[in-house]
Amino acid sequence: MASQHTTELRQEAVRVALTSGLSRKQVAADFNVGFSTLSR
Hints:
Layout: H1 7-19, H2 24-31, H3 35-39
Helix pairs in contact: 1-2
């Protein structure tokens, strides 16, 4: 079963993906979210 992520966690993951210079693949792994989910 997929875990439910809080709105705050999702917003933080997007912020990090956009501002950190890390790859989206790395950010997705760090936040334990799917790459395709983060890309949306």
